[in-house]
Write a structure and sequence with these properties.
Elements lengths: L1 H20 L8 E8 L7 E3 L5 E6 L4 E6 L7 E7 L3 E7 L5 E7 L16 E7 L7 E8 L3 E9 L2 E8 L6 E2 L2 E2 L16 E7 L7 E7 L2 H6 L10 E6 L6 E5 L4 E6 L4 E7 L6 E3 L11 E3 L17 E3 L5 E6 L10 E6 L4 E4 L3 H8 L15 E9 L2 E8 L4 E6 L7 E7 L4 E7 L4 E6 L4 E7 L5
Antiparallel strand pairs: 1-32, 2-3, 3-4, 4-5, 6-7, 7-8, 8-9, 10-11, 11-14, 12-13, 14-15, 16-17, 17-18, 18-19, 20-21, 22-23, 23-24, 24-25, 26-27, 27-28, 28-29, 30-31, 31-32
Length: 453
């Protein structure tokens, strides 16, 4: 009798899990089909247009690593390319023959003398036409502390769009402190900016750098938080390549850029999320009885989204923001969708956190400090359906939504990833999704079920 009761409980539990994971059982589902453990760590990953190669940043080894993906169930390391510093991001040229890496050469270390803020970072051009022999062919000096990069093309030239973050370097008694709070009077860093580098990789001696400043008046008019300290974080390029969106995480805003005209198109704040059920106590008891951000009013900026990664919808008409958060008890704790002029269209309203809890993936220890922290996001059209893919850095999972109608997305499923996922990409023509998990040092490959069910 006891065995029968246990069996019933297990079956009921599995049914509940399935119900939580899948909203519409008619939707095709993704499943993990391959994995690669890396030497070092995997942070930002990109793929060539044909989907046969992956390139990821390995900050621990200061390298750009190339992975063969012809058989996605058995990815293999083909080359590890040494870089002159720590890579922060990578992008692939439209034809898939070059990888361009943003590299920080002089980082500010806690307790050490600060580096000269005029020292340039590096844009590294890596030839991947013969993947096993990938190599740096040129380096170009750019802003001091580059972060994210996206790449387009114009004729023979590649256009690299770079977020030059210039995080605060706060100095006390001649030494760098751990404090990186924006707006600090002791910050010696220069204001961040966006740079456009035009270069013909086959003749890299001729290149140009255009700097797009983000003036305080622009950010102030857009009601951002620290107008003197832009700190651009992440660059996303629209499907038509005519518009780039750049997140200003600490400022809780987005600017859009025309990468050909080298000018700002718009700037807008992401505001605060509306109240949603949330667990706000790290007490080993997951309870969504609190209302966030109302019940977190002790934190002046609670509910402020503080976006990290961005993505355009496949039709280029919407921008998706990973509302990671920045300071204690802040952040949207999910993701949002915006029109190109900054009008709010949708956010998950806490749904992702609750579904993750139902699957045993909610990080209760982070409840009082930003919850699941959606770090990376991307979107793509697979089998005529538009999907959004968002990764939770703290919950270590991938959340998938159908965004064929962006103002009304439909939940599809949640899948576990490696620890601390940093980035996610979709390869539509191969029906693949790839997640780079920084903490576990692993790449995870998912595929849409072949039978579509």
């Amino acid at each position: 009798m006891l065995r029968a009761i246990v069996a019933i409980i297990i079956v009921v539990g599995l049914l509940i899990l399935v119900a939580l994971q899948i909203e519409d059982t008619s939707m095709p589902l993704f499943s993990e089909i391959g994995k690669l453990e890396v030497d070092g760590n995997a942070e930002i990953v990109q793929a060539t247009p044909d989907g046969n190669l992956l390139v990821y940043t390995n900050s621990r080894r200061k390298s750009l690593d190339v992975v063969g993906l012809e058989d996605p169930s058995s990815p293999s390391l083909l080359a590890s390319v040494e870089l002159p510093g720590e890579p922060t991001s990578v992008a692939i040229s439209p034809k898939g023959d070059w990888a361009l890496a943003a590299v920080v050469v002089a980082d500010a270390r806690d307790g050490k003398a600060p580096p000269d803020q005029r020292l340039p970072g590096v844009l590294a051009l890596v030839d991947i036409r013969e993947p096993g022999a990938a190599a740096v062919t040129a380096t170009i000096g750019i802003g001091h502390q580059p972060d994210s990069i996206a790449v387009s093309s114009s004729g023979y030239e590649l256009l690299a769009i770079l977020a030059i973050e210039n995080e605060p370097v706060i100095v006390k008694d001649g030494q760098v402190t751990k404090n990186k709070s924006p707006g600090n009077e002791s910050d010696i860093s220069f204001p961040g900016a966006v740079q456009i580098v035009a270069v013909n990789p086959d003749s890299p001696g001729n290149w140009s750098v255009a700097t797009i400043d983000l003036p305080a008046s622009l950010l102030r008019d857009a009601q951002m938080l620290y107008s003197e300290d832009p700190q651009p974080e992440y660059v996303a390029l629209s499907p038509g390549k005519h518009l780039a969106a750049v997140s200003l995480q600490e400022n809780n805003g987005i600017v859009t850029i025309d990468p050909v005209a080298n000018e700002v198109v718009s700037a807008f704040s992401l505001g605060r999320v509306n109240d949603r059920a949330a667990d706000l106590s790290a007490d080993d008891d997951i309870d969504f009885g609190a209302s966030y951000p109302t019940d977190a009013e002790g934190q002046a900026l609670a509910g402020t989204r503080f976006p990290d990664a961005l993505a355009f919808s496949p039709d280029g008409q919407y921008i998706l923001s990973a509302d990671e958060g920045e300071m204690p008890l802040t952040g949207g704790r999910g993701f949002s969708i915006w029109t190109l002029d900054g009008t709010w269209a949708w956010d998950d309203g806490g749904e992702i956190e609750q579904r993750a809890a139902g699957l045993g993936l909610y990080p209760d220890e982070r409840s009082d400090i930003k919850g699941i922290e959606i770090e990376g996001i991307t979107a793509g059209r697979v089998r005529m359906q538009d999907y959004a893919f968002a990764v939770s850095e703290r919950g270590s999972f991938l959340a998938i939504y159908d965004i064929t109608h962006p103002p009304a997305p439909e939940f599809v499923q949640i899948l576990p990833t490696g620890d601390g996922p940093e980035s996610v990409i979709v390869i539509p023509n191969r029906e693949l999704v790839v997640v780079a998990a920084e903490d576990s040092g692993s790449l995870h490959i998912y595929q849409l079920d072949s039978d579509g069910s």
